[in-house]
Amino acid sequence: MRKRCAIVLLLLASLTATAQRTDLLSRSELVLTGGGMNYLGDLNDQSAFGEVHAGFGAGVRCRLDNRWSLRLGGSYGTVSASEDWLEWRNLSFRSRIYEGLLLAEFNFRPFGPGATESQWTPYIFGGVAVFHFGPEALYEAPDGNTSWVALQPLCTEGQGTTTYPSRRPYPLTQLAMPFGVGVRWRLGKNFSLTAEYGFRKTWTDYLDDVSTTYVGADLLSAEYGDQSAALADRSNIPNAVGIKRGDDSLDDWYSYFNLSVGLNLNMLFGWMRSKRCRN
């Protein structure tokens, strides 16, 4: 009798776990995104769509109810800006962005696969992100060859020098606060389409390697080499020590606008299981 009861309990636990797993999968979807990344900072403080580069991402969205969702994902893209038209500064950069984020999303309309739920909705989102960046600039060597050079190790604003000991090299992995708006459409029971525009508020002013003042070619050449001095001041007429190179009162931002497709995980895993069984 005890063995039969134990077997029944094990079967009930297995069925409950399977049902819970199926329910979680049915409320979750794989999200694939593609769009553009843009930067706002010292070298682009006016245009929301400056130099736009392709961005890509992937993640998982879990629907808590027909209003709230959680999304875990990652994105990759490039940001850049150039001021070759501004002779007194003439700075430029590019930086690859790798980010991981956790978002909460709120639908303004009850959204889901049910017959009584809306098939489209505007929504807002916010959360936290960890991102890695690395500003680079084109450097023309004395022999005429050009190459992209990482700027952070060159300490172009005197970070770590004997003259500016309080200026420390900036970390390349930082936190950001993503937030934005979007519109989502239901395409049948197992698919969704989303258009989204999101900003990333960072707590660094060095996404572009530009923040404080010029420190002079002599100091940089002596402590970090001629390459550092050349990339710190690329103007036609060298700037005096102490002249503003950037505005350290404002941190840099970047944005990611994209289209995404959502695929229901229960459908996706069911399709994968059926393919494995046929093979």
In words, what does this structure look like?
The protein is an alpha+beta fold and 279 residues long. The protein has 4 helices and 10 strands. The protein has helices at 2-26, 217-224, 226-232, 265-278; strands spanning 28-40, 53-63, 68-82, 92-107, 120-132, 136-140, 146-150, 173-187, 191-202, 253-264. The strands form 2 sheets. Strands 1-2-3-4-5-8-9-10 form an 8-stranded antiparallel barrel. Helix 2 packs antiparallel against helix 3. Residues 4-21 have low confidence and may be disordered.
Order of helices and strands: HEEEEEEEEEHHEH
The strand line-up of the biggest sheet is 1-2-3-4-5-8-9-10
Give the CA-based shape: elongated
- Overall structural class, as computed from helix and strand content, comes to alpha+beta
Helical stretch count? 4
Largest sheet, strands/sense/barrel: 8 strands, antiparallel, barrel
SSE topology sketch:
Blueprint: H1 2-26, E1 28-40, E2 53-63, E3 68-82, E4 92-107, E5 120-132, E6 136-140, E7 146-150, E8 173-187, E9 191-202, H2 217-224, H3 226-232, E10 253-264, H4 265-278
Antiparallel strand pairs: 1-2, 1-10, 2-3, 3-4, 4-5, 5-8, 6-7, 8-9, 9-10
Helix pairs in contact: 2-3
